[in-house]
Amino acid sequence: MLAEALFFSAVLFTIGVVGVLTRRNAIIVFMCVELMLNAVNLTFVAFSQVYGVGGQVFVFFVMTVAAAEAAVGLAIIIALFRHRQTVDLQNINLLKG
Question: What confidence score (pLDDT) does residue 40 get?
C-alpha cells in the first residue's frame, strides 16, 4: 500500500511541476501548485500509516498554507486581470524594472 501511494504521489507531483514550468496561464499554474501540495499531503498520509500520526498533523499545516496561498494568489490574479485584461504570465512584467 505504501509503495502505490508513493508512486501515485510522485506522478501527481511530476504533473504539477510540468504544469508550473510549461503553462503560461496564471490560473493553471495555481492549480498545478495545488496539485503538488496535494501530492505532498498524500505522501504525509502514506508515511503516517507506517510511522504514526505525525504525518497527518503536517497535512493540516500544508492545507492551511494552501488555503492562504489560494486566497492571496487569486486576489492578485483578479487584480492583475482587472488592470491587464489577461492572466497570461508572459504579458505580466510589472516587477521587471
Answer: 94
Taking the model in full, what pTM does it have?
0.83
Lowest mean pLDDT among 8-12, 50-54, 66-70: 50-54
Give a three-class secondary structure readout of the chain: CHHHHHHHHHHHHHHHHHHHHHCCEHHHHHHHHHHHHHHHHHHHHHHHHHHCCHHHHHHHHHHHHHHHHHHHHHHHHHHHHHHHCCCECCCCCCCCC
d(CA 47, CA 22) in angstroms, rounded, equals 30
Q: Give the number of other CB atoms < 10 A from CB of residue 36.
A: 19
Cβ-contact 16, 35 below 8 angstroms: yes
